[in-house]
Amino acid sequence: YRREYALYTLQDRAIPSLADGMKSAARRVIWTARDGAKWKTASLAGATMPIHPHGAPEGTIDSVTGPFINNVPLFEPLATFGTILKPTAFGAARYTSVKLSKFTKEAILVDLDIIPMKPNYDDTLTEPSHFLPLIPVVLLNGQSGIAVGFAADILPRDLDDIITSQLQHLTGKPVVEYLPYSYPINQRATAKVFDKKTGKPRFTFSGSFTRVGVQKINITSLPYETYYEDYITYLNDLIDDGSIIDYDDDCKGCINFMVKFDRAYLASASDEQLIKLLALRKSKVENMNVIHFNGARLVSTDYIDVIATFTDWRLGWYVKRYERLLELCRAQIQRYVDVIT
Question: 181: burial class by Cβ within 10 Å (0-12, 13-18, 19+)?
C-alpha cells in the first residue's frame, strides 16, 4: 500500500506533467471550465468535484489565477487575487470569480477532440489524461511539489523566450537556454552555476537599490520569492541588531524602502557588502522533475531538453489531427452516399 500511495502521489498530485505542465487538480478545473463562462470560484471548485477525489480545489484555482505569482495566469481574475506586495492575498472563494484566460483558450485548449481521455476515479465520468498545449507550459509559470522520494521546483520562464527556443529547435538552430524570468516583478535570473551537492543548476536573483545622499539606500525591488511582509521583519531585525538606523516604508503598489544607515558605515561599505547585509541576492536550485508524456514514469530534465522533447512530441499530434480530419471526411462522404442511394 505504501508503494501504491507513493506512486499515486507522484503521478497524480505532486509532480507536473511534461505534456501540459499541470498537476491533476489544475487540469481538472480547466476541463470543467472549458465552456469559457464566468465562474464563481466556489462554484467551479464544486463542479470539479465529480472528477476530483480530494478536497474542493479552491486553492488550485487561486494558484493558477493569481496575476502576481504567474507569468501568464491560466484564468482571468475577476476579483481580489493578491497584490504585488501580497501576491497570495486571495479573496474568499465565495466572493471571487474567474474565467478562462485568452492564453488558455488559444494555447492550451486546442485539439480538444483528439486529447486522450481516461476514466475518473470512480469510473462514472471521463477526464483528460493531459491537454495538448502549443508550448511546454511546465516552463512558463514555475511550480513546485513534493512526492515520496521526489520533488519538483521549476522556475518561471518568459513566454517569448519559450517560443523563440521552440522555433530555434524546429528550424534546426542551436537552442538558446534563456535564464528564468518572473514577469510580475520584471526580474530575470542573473547567473547560473551548478550546485556542488546536487549537481542541479542554481540560479541567482538580485534586487535593486540606489544610494541616496550620504546616509540612505533606496531599495526598489526584492529578489524573486522574497516577500514584502517577510522583508519588513528582516529590516526590523537589522534595526534591533544595530545594522541600520531606521527605514521608511513607501511601498504602495511597488517596492520602495528608504533605509537609513550610519553615515560613516555607508561611506565605507561597498555595494557588495550592502547587497549581503540587505539580503538583496537570493539563489534557487532548480529541480526539474516532471511526469513523462506516458504518465507512467518520472523524468529529470532541463530547459533545452524540455524544449526539444516537447516540441517533437507535440508535432507528432498533427498526424492524429489529420487522421481525425480524414475520419470526419469519410463520415461525411458516407452520408452523401446514403443520400444518393
Answer: buried
Task: Tell me the C-alpha to C-alpha distance, in Å, between residue 132 and each of 41, 75, 140, 166.
Answer: 25, 17, 15, 15
Nearest CA to 191 out of 223, 165, 161 is that of 223
Give CA–CA dist 60/43, Å, rounded: 13
Q: Please, is 66 exposed, middle or buried when counting C-beta atoms within 10 Å of its C-beta (0-12, 13-18, 19+)?
A: buried
**Hunting for cell 514584502 — which residue is that?**
228
The 3-state DSSP class for residue 175 equals coil
Give the pLDDT confidence of 234-253 residue by residue, as tens digits: 999 999 999 999 999 999 98
Question: What is the band of 178 on the pLDDT scale with cuts at 50, 70, 90?
Answer: very high
Cell output for 193: 552555476
Calpha distance 134→318 (Å, rounded): 11
Contact yes or no for 148/281 (Cβ under 8 A): no
Residue closest to 159 by CA, chosen among 178, 131, 187, 173: 178
- Longest Cα pair distance anywhere in the chain, in angstroms? 99
For residues 118 and 198, give the distance between their C-alpha atoms in angstroms, rounded to a whole number: 36
Model confidence at 322: pLDDT above 60: yes
Compute the distance between CA of residue 282 and CA of residue 303 in angstroms, rounded to an integer: 21
